[in-house]
Write a structure and sequence with these properties.
By secondary structure, the protein is mostly helical. It has one domain (34-118). It contains four helices and no strands. It has helices at 11-26, 33-64, 68-104, 111-118. The longest helix is centred in the C-terminal third of the chain and has 37 residues, at 68-104. It is elongated.
Length: 119
């Protein structure tokens, strides 16, 4: 049986990342509470999705290691985990761009519009 892969992120890491992100948002004085809550939720969902996909990716790659039959069976699933991690990264990049704009000027961003952009 393959050795269980070491998972890099933990719930504590996610909690710390969310706290650091909240602290960053608190520094933006012109940010409304509604926008701050929405951005925090988007951030939390993206890093949680990325962590979950990474965890499953690592477990499945350990199962598939040097086994062509397992790779044939699970290859598509591994690909979907990579795609999920990529989408989460894209969401984080878009969120970072929105935050950078909000920091540079008093941007009027409709939270509903922003949410639709994140999809």
């Amino acid at each position: 049986m393959a050795e269980e892969p070491e998972i890099i992120l933990s719930n504590v890491d996610v909690g710390n990342k969310i706290k650091d992100f909240s602290d960053l948002l608190d520094q933006i004085e012109t940010l409304s509470d509604k926008k701050r809550a929405l951005w925090k939720e988007i951030y939390e969902n993206a890093i949680t999705d990325r962590q979950n996909a990474f965890t499953m990716f690592m477990k499945l790659t350990a199962i598939m290691a040097d086994k062509s039959t397992e790779h044939a069976v699970h290859g598509k699933t591994v690909s979907s985990y990579i795609e999920r991690m990529s989408k989460a990264n894209d969401q984080l990049i878009r969120l970072a761009e929105l935050i950078a704009r909000a920091e540079q000027k008093d941007d009027v961003i409709d939270p509903e519009d922003m949410y639709s952009r994140m999809k």
